[in-house]
Amino acid sequence: MSVLPILKWPDPRLAETCSPITQITPEIERLAADMLETMYAAPGRGLAGPQVGAMQRIFVMDTGWKEGKPDPIVCLNPMLQEVSEERATNSEGCLSIPGVAADISRPAQVQMVWTGLNGGRYVQSFEGFAAACVQHELDHLDGVVTFDHLGADERNALIAEYHAQ
Ligand code: ZN
Q: What's this model's pTM, rounded to 2 decimal places?
C-alpha cells in the first residue's frame, strides 16, 4: 500500500464527472487500499477517487476512527436511494481544500446503495456527520466541491481565504 498525493482545488480533475466501475480488478483493490491509507495519513474521514486522480466512481470513508471506533468502508458506484426532507448544516472540510471549512446544508438522513470490493451490494442509512460525509464524497464523483454549494458572496469570500493561506 502507498500514500497517494492528494489533488488540491482548483485542479481541473476535481470538476470532472467520474466513470462507473464495471469490473473489480486487482487495480481497483489496490486503489481502494491506497485510498484508505492516504485518507488515514492525511488525516481525514473520507476520500474520493478524483482526489487522487482516479476518475472512477469510488470513495472510502471511516467516520469513527478518530474517536477510536474504526469502521472503514469502500464504496463502488455509490448512489443515493432516499433523502430526507429534513436538512442539516455541517461545517465541512475537504482534503482537497485544506484549511477552509464551509457550512453546507444537505438532507439530514440519506440511504445509500453501493457495491463493495467483494462485489456484494450494500444498502445503509446514514445520519448526522456520516450523512454529510457520504454526500460530500458522492459530490466529488460528479465534480462538485463544497464551494459549489455556496452563494456567490460566501463562495468568493472562502476562495479568497483559501488563496490567502
Ligand atoms: Zn472533499
A: 0.97
